[in-house]
Queue: 3 jobs
Job 1
Amino acid sequence: MRTHRKQTSSTATQTYEAHSTYAAALGAPDRCRYRRTPPGAPTVAGLVRPGDTISTSYNTGGVVIEVKEYFHAAPTGETLSHFTIVYVPPDRASKYRNTDRCWINECVAVGNRILKLFEANTDEVFVVDRAQATQPRRSRTILIT
């Protein structure tokens, strides 16, 4: 007699590594493999600023309205710096509501790339268009007598 129940696979179930602090807090294995911005290198706040247009490797993006720094206390005892990029849809950039705000959390600058803190996360943020400076740079002159 045949049964219509789905047969369970004899292969071992796959375990997924934590890809964010949230997943790690839920119990996903955290192998403590993090990305770090090298000392002296530009941070996320140095690579992206309010007014810039960004996109992500997973097809989202908009106009940046804020970049905030946070810290993660890793199980290894380290305190790791990471950033949150807050953006709004491009058509709402001039006038937006709180409901228009979107967040990209746990961003780290590695070279000139904006990646996620956990190495298990392959997401990337790209700067598509730089914001124009709000005030023109004034030249400085020095009078030598």
Job 2
Amino acid sequence: MAARSRPVDAGGERLGLAIKRAEQVLIAEKTRVLRPFGLTVAQYAAMVVIAATPGISGARIARQGNVTPQTMAVVLAGLEAKGLIERQPSGDHAQVLVTRLSRAGQALFRRADAAALEVEQRLAAAFSDAELATLRELLARATAAIPAPAAAS
């Protein structure tokens, strides 16, 4: 499909502002529901990735979270200080630390994830199944439309 040029603010607010507003509302509500668990949204997001991929490196978590490795190192250090994750040298590369949820981290994650999923379920309930499928497709296209600058490793 050929790219079409059109004003981003035709007929309303700028597209970037509309997307940012939706993100801010979602993050604010996730922040509220995660607070009782002592987690930030960034910590929770890292735990989602770690729970899905035990033994993952910090660099891979950063790539999946679209943040720098340095930013993720700070997030992981906070989780490790709370005893929620365990990191140890990789069997393949001694310089690489692999990350897993600790037993306490698994228990906390299950409870925090239920609270965060409830927020996402409220969001999803605002749309029909067909609208949700379209929204996911549109968001994927929006994400792909703007190439990210080369990530620093």
Job 3
Amino acid sequence: MASAEFSLRFDGWGDIPFCNNGNPKSVPNPEFYLTDIPAGTTTVQFYFKNLNVPAANRGASKRLPVPADGRVPAGTFSYRGPCPVNGVNTYEWKATARAENRVSGNAKARRKYPE
């Protein structure tokens, strides 16, 4: 099975405390919207990173069942939230879709924090 692209969107950071000291806290995920999920996909896993500090591991979700409507509610999992030392950083969520243990697709979405 070839890997395919699908779409990931999130419209904001959700209900998280403001952070700008470089010491991120565990916060709930924002609401995600997935579209064009590859056929046969059984799970999706989310990864989070700061593109300005790519070596910093910000966390990942467990493999989650693929939602029938493509919506992953806010608060489904926790991660180390956005928290630049000063200024604005760009962060990226990556969603990896899997059909059993094979990657069936990837999607990415970026936002700045703070906005």
